[in-house]
Write a structure and sequence with these properties.
Layout: H1 2-12, H2 16-25, E1 39-47, E2 50-57, E3 66-72, E4 79-86, E5 98-105, E6 108-115, E7 126-132, E8 140-141, E9 161-164, E10 170-174, E11 181-185, E12 192-193, E13 202-203, E14 211-218, E15 221-228, E16 237-243, E17 252-257, E18 264-274, E19 281-289, E20 299-305
The structure holds beta-L-arabinofuranose (FUB).
Beta-L-arabinofuranose (FUB) binds near residues 40, 56 and 231.
Family: Belongs to the glycosyl hydrolase 43 family.
Keywords: Carbohydrate metabolism, Glycosidase, Hydrolase, Polysaccharide degradation, Signal, Xylan degradation
GO molecular function: hydrolase activity, hydrolyzing O-glycosyl compounds
Length: about 325
Protein backbone atom coordinates (compact mmCIF):
# COMPACT_ATOMS: atom_id res chain seq x y z
CA UNK A 1 0.00 0.00 0.00
CA UNK A 2 2.88 2.35 0.98
CA UNK A 3 4.54 1.84 -2.45
CA UNK A 4 1.22 2.25 -4.28
CA UNK A 5 0.64 5.63 -2.57
CA UNK A 6 4.22 6.71 -3.27
CA UNK A 7 3.80 5.73 -6.90
CA UNK A 8 0.52 7.67 -7.14
CA UNK A 9 2.09 10.71 -5.47
CA UNK A 10 4.94 10.74 -7.99
CA UNK A 11 2.65 10.21 -10.97
CA UNK A 12 0.11 12.80 -9.77
CA UNK A 13 2.81 15.13 -8.50
CA UNK A 14 1.26 15.76 -5.11
CA UNK A 15 1.84 14.95 -1.45
CA UNK A 16 -0.36 12.25 0.07
CA UNK A 17 -2.42 14.77 2.08
CA UNK A 18 -2.87 17.01 -0.96
CA UNK A 19 -3.96 13.97 -2.97
CA UNK A 20 -6.49 13.17 -0.26
CA UNK A 21 -7.80 16.74 -0.41
CA UNK A 22 -8.10 16.58 -4.18
CA UNK A 23 -9.90 13.25 -3.95
CA UNK A 24 -12.38 14.80 -1.52
CA UNK A 25 -12.97 17.96 -3.56
CA UNK A 26 -13.36 15.80 -6.67
CA UNK A 27 -16.33 14.01 -5.13
CA UNK A 28 -19.24 14.78 -7.44
CA UNK A 29 -22.14 13.97 -5.16
CA UNK A 30 -22.66 13.63 -1.44
CA UNK A 31 -23.52 9.94 -1.57
CA UNK A 32 -26.07 8.57 0.90
CA UNK A 33 -25.71 8.45 3.84
CA UNK A 34 -24.00 11.82 3.94
CA UNK A 35 -21.84 10.77 6.90
CA UNK A 36 -20.97 7.47 8.55
CA UNK A 37 -22.76 6.10 11.59
CA UNK A 38 -26.28 5.58 12.84
CA UNK A 39 -27.91 9.00 13.07
CA UNK A 40 -31.62 9.89 12.95
CA UNK A 41 -34.07 12.82 13.08
CA UNK A 42 -31.71 15.19 11.24
CA UNK A 43 -32.29 18.91 11.56
CA UNK A 44 -30.76 20.63 8.55
CA UNK A 45 -30.16 24.36 8.86
CA UNK A 46 -28.02 27.08 7.28
CA UNK A 47 -25.81 29.24 9.52
CA UNK A 48 -23.47 31.89 8.08
CA UNK A 49 -23.74 30.40 4.56
CA UNK A 50 -22.79 26.91 5.79
CA UNK A 51 -25.03 23.90 5.96
CA UNK A 52 -25.34 22.21 9.34
CA UNK A 53 -27.01 18.93 10.30
CA UNK A 54 -27.88 18.12 13.91
CA UNK A 55 -29.12 14.53 14.25
CA UNK A 56 -30.07 12.21 17.08
CA UNK A 57 -27.36 9.68 17.91
CA UNK A 58 -29.33 6.55 17.04
CA UNK A 59 -28.56 3.97 19.72
CA UNK A 60 -30.24 2.31 22.75
CA UNK A 61 -31.92 5.02 24.84
CA UNK A 62 -29.45 4.79 27.75
CA UNK A 63 -26.59 5.51 25.33
CA UNK A 64 -28.29 8.59 23.83
CA UNK A 65 -26.62 11.10 26.12
CA UNK A 66 -24.79 13.30 23.59
CA UNK A 67 -25.18 14.73 20.11
CA UNK A 68 -22.71 15.20 17.28
CA UNK A 69 -23.21 17.81 14.54
CA UNK A 70 -21.98 17.99 10.95
CA UNK A 71 -21.21 20.98 8.75
CA UNK A 72 -20.61 21.44 5.04
CA UNK A 73 -19.88 24.34 2.72
CA UNK A 74 -21.33 22.53 -0.29
CA UNK A 75 -23.65 19.64 0.80
CA UNK A 76 -21.13 17.13 -0.61
CA UNK A 77 -18.26 17.14 1.91
CA UNK A 78 -19.23 16.96 5.59
CA UNK A 79 -17.17 17.69 8.69
CA UNK A 80 -18.02 16.07 12.02
CA UNK A 81 -18.21 18.17 15.20
CA UNK A 82 -18.25 15.60 17.99
CA UNK A 83 -20.36 16.03 21.10
CA UNK A 84 -21.72 19.54 20.58
CA UNK A 85 -23.92 18.79 23.59
CA UNK A 86 -23.50 16.11 26.22
CA UNK A 87 -24.76 14.84 29.55
CA UNK A 88 -22.35 16.98 31.60
CA UNK A 89 -24.14 20.10 30.34
CA UNK A 90 -27.73 19.03 31.12
CA UNK A 91 -28.16 18.25 34.83
CA UNK A 92 -31.58 16.61 34.39
CA UNK A 93 -30.74 14.42 31.36
CA UNK A 94 -30.85 10.69 32.05
CA UNK A 95 -31.31 9.17 28.57
CA UNK A 96 -33.00 9.49 25.17
CA UNK A 97 -31.55 12.82 24.03
CA UNK A 98 -33.56 13.25 20.85
CA UNK A 99 -34.35 15.23 17.75
CA UNK A 100 -32.58 18.62 18.02
CA UNK A 101 -33.93 21.85 16.54
CA UNK A 102 -31.38 24.64 16.28
CA UNK A 103 -31.84 28.37 15.61
CA UNK A 104 -29.59 31.41 15.50
CA UNK A 105 -31.00 34.45 17.30
CA UNK A 106 -29.96 37.19 19.74
CA UNK A 107 -26.31 36.64 18.70
CA UNK A 108 -26.46 33.07 20.00
CA UNK A 109 -27.39 29.53 18.93
CA UNK A 110 -30.28 27.77 20.65
CA UNK A 111 -30.47 23.97 20.56
CA UNK A 112 -33.85 22.60 21.60
CA UNK A 113 -33.91 18.91 22.47
CA UNK A 114 -36.13 16.17 23.86
CA UNK A 115 -34.85 14.21 26.85
CA UNK A 116 -35.74 11.23 29.02
CA UNK A 117 -38.69 9.90 26.93
CA UNK A 118 -41.19 10.65 29.72
CA UNK A 119 -44.19 8.32 29.92
CA UNK A 120 -46.29 10.29 32.43
CA UNK A 121 -46.41 13.68 34.15
CA UNK A 122 -44.63 12.43 37.27
CA UNK A 123 -41.39 11.81 35.40
CA UNK A 124 -38.74 14.49 34.94
CA UNK A 125 -38.03 15.25 31.29
CA UNK A 126 -39.46 16.76 28.14
CA UNK A 127 -38.24 19.53 25.85
CA UNK A 128 -35.21 21.55 26.95
CA UNK A 129 -33.11 24.33 25.46
CA UNK A 130 -29.34 24.74 25.45
CA UNK A 131 -27.39 27.79 24.30
CA UNK A 132 -23.96 28.30 22.69
CA UNK A 133 -21.96 31.08 21.07
CA UNK A 134 -20.97 28.83 18.20
CA UNK A 135 -22.95 26.36 16.05
CA UNK A 136 -20.40 23.69 17.02
CA UNK A 137 -21.15 24.24 20.69
CA UNK A 138 -20.53 23.51 23.43
CA UNK A 139 -24.28 23.88 24.05
CA UNK A 140 -25.19 24.27 27.72
CA UNK A 141 -28.64 23.77 29.20
CA UNK A 142 -30.06 27.24 29.77
CA UNK A 143 -32.81 26.53 32.30
CA UNK A 144 -31.66 23.71 34.59
CA UNK A 145 -35.02 22.06 33.89
CA UNK A 146 -37.23 21.32 30.87
CA UNK A 147 -39.03 24.14 29.06
CA UNK A 148 -42.03 21.85 28.44
CA UNK A 149 -42.29 19.01 30.93
CA UNK A 150 -45.88 17.81 30.76
CA UNK A 151 -47.99 15.70 28.42
CA UNK A 152 -50.55 18.22 27.18
CA UNK A 153 -53.37 17.38 24.74
CA UNK A 154 -51.92 13.85 24.62
CA UNK A 155 -48.64 15.03 23.05
CA UNK A 156 -45.46 13.54 24.45
CA UNK A 157 -43.03 16.51 24.81
CA UNK A 158 -40.49 15.50 22.14
CA UNK A 159 -39.67 16.29 18.48
CA UNK A 160 -39.88 20.09 18.57
CA UNK A 161 -39.39 22.24 15.51
CA UNK A 162 -38.81 25.95 16.08
CA UNK A 163 -40.17 28.08 13.26
CA UNK A 164 -39.60 31.79 12.66
CA UNK A 165 -42.40 33.56 10.80
CA UNK A 166 -41.75 36.53 8.51
CA UNK A 167 -42.76 38.97 11.28
CA UNK A 168 -39.95 37.61 13.47
CA UNK A 169 -42.27 35.65 15.79
CA UNK A 170 -41.05 32.17 16.74
CA UNK A 171 -43.45 29.26 17.24
CA UNK A 172 -42.60 25.78 18.39
CA UNK A 173 -44.43 22.77 16.96
CA UNK A 174 -43.86 19.58 18.88
CA UNK A 175 -45.26 16.27 19.95
CA UNK A 176 -45.12 12.52 19.80
CA UNK A 177 -47.81 9.92 20.46
CA UNK A 178 -49.94 11.11 17.51
CA UNK A 179 -50.58 14.60 18.88
CA UNK A 180 -49.01 17.88 17.81
CA UNK A 181 -49.13 21.13 19.80
CA UNK A 182 -47.87 24.57 18.97
CA UNK A 183 -46.66 27.20 21.43
CA UNK A 184 -45.58 30.82 21.05
CA UNK A 185 -42.00 31.61 22.03
CA UNK A 186 -40.93 34.67 24.01
CA UNK A 187 -38.22 36.81 22.37
CA UNK A 188 -35.57 35.29 24.67
CA UNK A 189 -36.43 31.83 23.24
CA UNK A 190 -36.14 30.47 26.78
CA UNK A 191 -39.80 30.71 27.69
CA UNK A 192 -43.25 30.49 26.14
CA UNK A 193 -45.97 33.15 26.19
CA UNK A 194 -49.76 33.00 25.74
CA UNK A 195 -51.38 33.36 22.32
CA UNK A 196 -53.70 36.32 21.81
CA UNK A 197 -56.65 34.28 23.10
CA UNK A 198 -54.79 33.57 26.36
CA UNK A 199 -54.09 29.89 25.69
CA UNK A 200 -50.57 28.49 25.99
CA UNK A 201 -50.89 25.25 23.98
CA UNK A 202 -52.84 24.83 20.75
CA UNK A 203 -53.38 21.36 19.36
CA UNK A 204 -52.84 21.41 15.57
CA UNK A 205 -52.68 17.66 14.88
CA UNK A 206 -53.29 16.75 11.23
CA UNK A 207 -54.79 13.47 10.03
CA UNK A 208 -52.35 10.50 10.42
CA UNK A 209 -49.81 12.59 12.34
CA UNK A 210 -47.44 10.61 14.55
CA UNK A 211 -44.37 12.81 15.32
CA UNK A 212 -41.50 14.83 13.81
CA UNK A 213 -43.23 18.11 12.76
CA UNK A 214 -41.52 20.54 10.39
CA UNK A 215 -42.68 23.89 8.96
CA UNK A 216 -41.59 25.77 5.85
CA UNK A 217 -42.97 29.08 4.62
CA UNK A 218 -42.69 29.43 0.85
CA UNK A 219 -44.39 31.95 -1.42
CA UNK A 220 -46.75 33.01 1.37
CA UNK A 221 -47.95 29.46 2.14
CA UNK A 222 -47.23 27.42 5.25
CA UNK A 223 -46.08 23.91 4.41
CA UNK A 224 -46.54 21.77 7.51
CA UNK A 225 -44.93 18.33 7.39
CA UNK A 226 -44.73 15.40 9.80
CA UNK A 227 -43.87 11.72 10.11
CA UNK A 228 -46.41 8.90 10.05
CA UNK A 229 -46.16 5.22 11.01
CA UNK A 230 -43.77 3.68 13.55
CA UNK A 231 -40.14 4.83 13.41
CA UNK A 232 -38.89 1.30 14.18
CA UNK A 233 -40.60 -0.24 11.16
CA UNK A 234 -40.40 -0.03 7.37
CA UNK A 235 -43.59 2.06 6.85
CA UNK A 236 -42.36 5.22 8.54
CA UNK A 237 -42.94 8.10 6.10
CA UNK A 238 -43.48 11.85 5.73
CA UNK A 239 -46.70 13.65 4.73
CA UNK A 240 -47.70 17.32 4.47
CA UNK A 241 -50.39 19.96 4.48
CA UNK A 242 -50.56 23.48 3.05
CA UNK A 243 -52.13 26.32 5.04
CA UNK A 244 -52.56 30.09 4.86
CA UNK A 245 -51.62 30.61 8.50
CA UNK A 246 -49.08 29.16 10.96
CA UNK A 247 -52.06 28.02 13.03
CA UNK A 248 -53.49 25.86 10.25
CA UNK A 249 -55.85 24.19 9.69
CA UNK A 250 -53.43 21.59 8.38
CA UNK A 251 -55.40 19.48 5.91
CA UNK A 252 -53.32 16.50 4.82
CA UNK A 253 -52.39 16.60 1.10
CA UNK A 254 -50.41 13.35 0.85
CA UNK A 255 -47.09 11.61 1.35
CA UNK A 256 -43.81 13.07 0.16
CA UNK A 257 -41.29 10.49 1.41
CA UNK A 258 -41.64 6.77 1.98
CA UNK A 259 -39.79 3.47 1.68
CA UNK A 260 -38.53 2.33 -1.71
CA UNK A 261 -37.75 -1.39 -1.74
CA UNK A 262 -34.91 -0.83 -4.18
CA UNK A 263 -33.21 1.77 -1.94
CA UNK A 264 -34.17 1.79 1.76
CA UNK A 265 -37.05 1.50 4.23
CA UNK A 266 -38.28 3.47 7.26
CA UNK A 267 -37.68 6.87 5.65
CA UNK A 268 -38.87 9.79 7.75
CA UNK A 269 -38.28 12.46 10.41
CA UNK A 270 -36.94 15.03 8.02
CA UNK A 271 -36.11 18.70 7.58
CA UNK A 272 -35.57 20.92 4.54
CA UNK A 273 -32.75 23.26 3.58
CA UNK A 274 -32.58 25.72 0.72
CA UNK A 275 -29.65 25.59 -1.70
CA UNK A 276 -28.14 28.52 -3.56
CA UNK A 277 -30.78 28.55 -6.32
CA UNK A 278 -33.99 30.59 -6.16
CA UNK A 279 -36.29 27.65 -5.41
CA UNK A 280 -33.73 24.90 -4.80
CA UNK A 281 -34.73 22.60 -1.94
CA UNK A 282 -33.17 19.58 -0.25
CA UNK A 283 -34.76 17.09 2.11
CA UNK A 284 -32.57 15.70 4.88
CA UNK A 285 -34.06 12.62 6.52
CA UNK A 286 -33.18 9.28 8.01
CA UNK A 287 -33.77 5.84 6.52
CA UNK A 288 -32.91 2.22 7.24
CA UNK A 289 -30.66 0.40 4.76
CA UNK A 290 -32.15 -2.66 3.07
CA UNK A 291 -31.46 -5.79 5.11
CA UNK A 292 -31.18 -3.88 8.42
CA UNK A 293 -33.99 -4.58 10.85
CA UNK A 294 -32.78 -3.09 14.15
CA UNK A 295 -34.86 -0.03 15.05
CA UNK A 296 -31.81 2.17 15.62
CA UNK A 297 -30.08 1.28 12.34
CA UNK A 298 -30.94 4.66 10.86
CA UNK A 299 -28.69 6.75 8.64
CA UNK A 300 -28.91 10.39 7.59
CA UNK A 301 -29.46 11.03 3.88
CA UNK A 302 -30.15 13.92 1.53
CA UNK A 303 -32.08 14.17 -1.73
CA UNK A 304 -33.67 16.87 -3.86
CA UNK A 305 -37.21 18.03 -3.13
CA UNK A 306 -39.23 19.72 -5.85
CA UNK A 307 -42.45 21.73 -5.90
CA UNK A 308 -44.70 21.46 -8.92
CA UNK A 309 -46.07 24.50 -10.77
CA UNK A 310 -49.16 24.59 -8.54
CA UNK A 311 -47.11 24.60 -5.34
CA UNK A 312 -47.59 20.95 -4.39
CA UNK A 313 -44.59 18.90 -3.25
CA UNK A 314 -43.56 16.11 -5.62
CA UNK A 315 -42.83 12.71 -4.03
CA UNK A 316 -39.11 12.47 -3.22
CA UNK A 317 -36.99 9.99 -5.15
CA UNK A 318 -34.52 8.47 -2.67
CA UNK A 319 -31.07 7.85 -4.11
CA UNK A 320 -27.74 6.29 -3.25
CA UNK A 321 -25.90 9.14 -5.01
CA UNK A 322 -27.27 11.95 -2.88
CA UNK A 323 -26.89 15.47 -4.28
CA UNK A 324 -24.44 17.63 -6.18
CA UNK A 325 -22.58 20.57 -4.65
CA UNK A 326 -24.53 23.75 -3.92
CA UNK A 327 -22.07 26.08 -2.18
CA UNK A 328 -23.61 29.18 -0.62
CA UNK A 329 -20.33 31.08 -0.32
CA UNK A 330 -18.45 32.37 -3.33
CA UNK A 331 -15.23 30.40 -3.81
CA UNK A 332 -12.09 32.49 -3.30
O1 LIG B 1 -34.81 9.06 17.57
C1 LIG B 1 -35.77 9.04 18.56
C2 LIG B 1 -37.14 9.17 18.05
O2 LIG B 1 -37.27 8.41 16.86
C3 LIG B 1 -37.61 10.49 17.61
O3 LIG B 1 -37.85 11.42 18.56
C4 LIG B 1 -38.76 10.07 16.82
O4 LIG B 1 -39.30 11.07 16.05
C5 LIG B 1 -38.21 8.98 16.03
O5 LIG B 1 -37.62 9.41 14.83
Amino acid sequence: MKYRNLFLSIVLGCSTSLCAQNASSAKETSGNPIFEGWYADPEGVVFNKEYWVYPTYSAPYDEQIFMDAFSSTDLVNWKKHPRVIEKENISWLRRALWAPAVVQENGKYYLFFGANDIQNNNELGGIGVAVADNPAGPFKDALGKPLIDKIINGAQPIDQYVFKDDDGQYYMYYGGWRHCNMVKMAPDLLSIVPFEDGTMYKEVTPENYVEGPFMLKRKGKYYFMWSEGGWGGPDYCVAYAIADSPFGPFKRVGKILEQDLSVAVGAGHHSLVKGRGKDEWYIIYHRRPLGETAANSRETCIDRLYFDKDGYIKPVKMTFEGVKASPLKKSR
